[in-house]
Give the backbone structure.
Amino acid sequence: MIKLIRTRDYDDMSRKAANIIAAQIVLNPASVLGLATGSSPVGTYKNLVAMYEAGDLDFSQISSYNLDEYRGISRSNDQSYYYFMNENLFDHVNINKDATHVPNGENLDAENECTTYEAAVRAIGGVDLQLLGMGRNAHIGFNEPCDEFPKATHCVDLTESTIEANKRFFASADDVPRQAYSMGIGTIMCAKKILVVVSGEDKAEALKNSVYGPVTPQVPGSILQFHPDVTIVADEAALSLCPAE
Ligand code: GLP
């Protein structure tokens, strides 16, 4: 079941998404959150930090699992997702850092890292609320379009287009890691609730195909149609190819 929430722009989207996460934290202060990186959730995190600073949110019992991380990147590298999460959220709220989890990109033993991470997420029975962004090709986490939905946390060879899209953050394209660890589609689908933030015209095709198209691993986001509790908060530009309701 997908509930689509229409918003004006990135700021409006970010406020509404933050309100949904805030409601989750208020209703269950010990929630396990699934967290995402990328530019889409940055505004959502900013709003959560503001709510925390205003005294409206308490993260002290919250724990978290992130979707993905580059393989072979050091945690102190400012392009690691570990660094991103501290910078954008964890350093600014009263979350217990020991309760935050990001796949360890410093562990080069892919099988060991993926098995351990998957076991940890499965052991808690799936996260309570999973936040997701969406790639231009409808990828979620680092689950790129492919012939079969990846089930569990796995090591991904990044596509040329993803390396190209992410090179702006690195000194050169050669510095972009070639692989990443990512929760699988099966791991993501274990979440009790899923919240997706989608902004901008370059995501319009991916959003339309994910919500209204056939469910296929060639459009990874389309699997969300089979989840019982998905909320997509999208702005007008991202919704431009979706039928008006
Ligand atoms: C990356 C991340 C995804 C993210 C996507 C979109 O590849 N692994 O988790 O959703 O890009 O990024 P952005 O929000 O910057 O458009």
Q: What stands out?
A: The mean pLDDT is 96. Residues 36-40, 67-68, 133-135, 141-142, 162 surround GLP (CB under 6 Å). The chain has one domain: 2-128+138-182+193-204+211-235.
